[in-house]
């Protein structure tokens, strides 16, 4: 057992509820976004509330995002290194952001200053509440007294079992991000086509199928859960949404009608991911046989 308690650091793309982060005193590396000509910290919708953000995007405002620089990681990691505490950083997927690479630069810089520092960087290959689900499990284990090695082993063994299933309401945001062509976005919008996407083992957002209509796309997420979920009675299911609380609740109700689960956590898709996925995004996360 480690004699000094490790610390788990997350980034703001976990999209975890703000009150959970406060309650468990979790150190966060914050990404930033440019919104209406002003730079904001992704602070879990404390500076700009969720409704305002997504309503502005619906009106045509296009936020842009940037990765965290190495200096931001250094500021978060350093106080724990001075206490000689092992740091475990659970990173947003490196296939979707350059932030993980910045954390590597930060670690290398800090090791010059603190040669004995114990810093573990884990690319979760996960996004939004997918990385949030991983973090919640790790934090629960940490608070129960798990050692650094046990925590790292659990995350590495289970991160590719966290299923991510998404749908979006507006194809034009996927077009902006280069996920689909302009022609596909135009035709899909005309025909009311909704994509079903997932995050694969490399941490990339991949279109899997298309269905006609919003209700069918939500049901498609539920059907993906039916196909691969393991031990639902032991699970907390996570749902994130881009200002679509009724749709999130509809999906939660579908799950509750069929499964005796421990809990369902519903939270917003934060501004950094929401800048790319848009209003009406709905995402489902759970532990599965595979992604």
Write structural notes for this entry:
- This protein is an alpha/beta fold and 291 residues long.
- It contains 11 helices and 13 strands.
- It has helices spanning 18-23, 50-58, 70-82, 99-113, 129-143, 148-158, 171-176, 182-190, 214-228, 245-258, 271-277; strands at 7-11, 28-29, 32-35, 38-41, 64-66, 87-91, 119-123, 162-167, 193-199, 205-212, 236-241, 263-268, 282-287.
- Strand 11 (236-241), helix 10 (245-258) and strand 12 form a beta-alpha-beta unit.
- The two termini are 32 Å apart.
- The mean pLDDT is 92.
Outline:
This protein is an alpha/beta fold. It is 41% helix and 23% strand.
Could you outline the blueprint of secondary structure elements for this entry?
Elements: E1 7-11, H1 18-23, E2 28-29, E3 32-35, E4 38-41, H2 50-58, E5 64-66, H3 70-82, E6 87-91, H4 99-113, E7 119-123, H5 129-143, H6 148-158, E8 162-167, H7 171-176, H8 182-190, E9 193-199, E10 205-212, H9 214-228, E11 236-241, H10 245-258, E12 263-268, H11 271-277, E13 282-287
Parallel strand pairs: 1-2, 1-6, 6-7, 11-12
Antiparallel strand pairs: 3-4, 3-5, 8-9, 8-13, 9-10, 11-13
